[in-house]
What we know:
globular; four-stranded antiparallel sheet; alpha/beta
Amino acid sequence: xxxxVNKEKSILTFPADREIALETKNVQxxxxxxxAMHDASLQFPRYSITALIGASGSGKSTYLRSLNRMNDxxxxxxxxxMYRGLNINSNEVDIYQMRRRIGMVFQRxxxxxxxxxxxxxxxxxxxxxxxKSKINEIVESSLKQAALWDEVKDDLGRSALSLSGGQQxxxxxxxxxxxxxxxxxxxxxxxxxDPISTYKLEMTLSDLKDQYTIIIVTHSMEQASRLSDYTxxxxxxxxxxxDTTKNVFTNPTMKLTEDYVSGNFG
Length: 266
Ligand SMILES: Nc1ncnc2c1ncn2[C@@H]1O[C@H](COP(=O)(O)OP(=O)(O)OP(=O)(O)O)[C@@H](O)[C@H]1O
């Protein structure tokens, strides 16, 4: 039985004035016999940043990866994941198309061993876009959105692998943005970055939320409180609390949340 600290508030207080970008209904994830995610029901508000926080092994990555079917072939995922009225956790969904709308940025930057330009233009070619000026336009606009353009514009033919870790991560964000997504899923995108690169990445994400919905796993309480509008706290495969970040950090409903955000465990 989980203990509440604020009895008049419900566990999953939700601000009703926000449009919903993505909703999970009773999502369960099983790695074989390991029931890793229990009954995850949450609505992610559009044009905002939601942080997923919790101790190691609480299920943050498992949940995040379910949101665009990255657990396919690894785990069994039951329940509904509703995106624009469609349950994307169903066999009818074209996973490739869906992932263009719900992109993923991983913990370690994973640029292709190609030029900066090709990192973005190659997937566009694969999508059937052949018009060079259109491609150049998308390369430029996505690099600008990812706040990398000024640093690389003079040599787009340079290898992506010669960029710093922070620049590589922003290039991976640009590559996702070039697909014209609605939602960006990010699994600890700053964990391999130094403080200055982390700061730049956070600035970039803050700017992006005007146009995109961002869901980010982070181990850093400071990052969650600086960056996110909403926070979900996970514990042992369950979503214990979801609320505005301000409330989760200053006025949590659950004792478990209070202990975690105040550093008393985890
Ligand atoms: N590929 C996998 N195969 C089997 N079990 C897994 C796999 N990935 C995760 N798990 C299990 O699922 C549970 C949740 O793990 P998950 O990685 O989602 O937690 P997390 O909160 O993201 O942890 P961390 O903060 O350490 O990254 C753990 O019990 C873990 O051992």
